[in-house]
Specification:
Helix content is 52%, strand content 11%. It is of the alpha/beta class and 178 residues long. The protein has a 5-stranded parallel beta sheet, sandwiched between helices. Helix 1 (16-27) packs across helix 8 (155-165), helix 2 (34-42) packs across helix 4 (55-72) and helix 4 runs parallel beside helix 5 (87-93). The longest helix has 19 residues, at 125-143. The radius of gyration is 16 Å and the shape is globular. The two termini are 21 Å apart.
Amino acid sequence: MTGPAVVLVGPPGAGKSTIGALLAQRLGTGYRDTDADIERAAGKPIPEIFIDEGEPHFRALEREAVRTAVAEHPGVLALGGGAVMDDGTRALLAGLPVVFLDVELADAVHRVGLDAPRPLLAVNPRQRWRELMEARRPLYTEVARATVATGGRTPDEVADAVLQALALPRDRTPDTTQ
């Protein structure tokens, strides 16, 4: 089966970007983030998309970004926190090496910060994060082949745990002969 080597899902603050970049380096492959793809395509940051066009428009852009990335990207792929809310996206992820990076609220708040430009966390971020996780946790676990808890672990330790969970080699030198 073709597709990404690893797909990371999880809430804001789970460390998808940090862990994704580490995994790509260790696996000798590329890293791609669908949120960055959306911002590049739209020509503006995600919070502005929410403000200017609304969440439904953003979710349509997100569906397309995920579909394109899964089809095109053979490396490590990080999805936006809400991507799993879409039925089609969940179906697309079936059979792929998806890892749910599970994070506790205190760690997420520390990593994201309470003033970060995250549109869905703008009002009462702690309560809103809890609500998002309550709605999304079953969907993260549904699509995930493995769940890796990030609490109390360094990014290197989380990356090791992801590789171990997917039975992937821990260190690989990129093939430069091609």
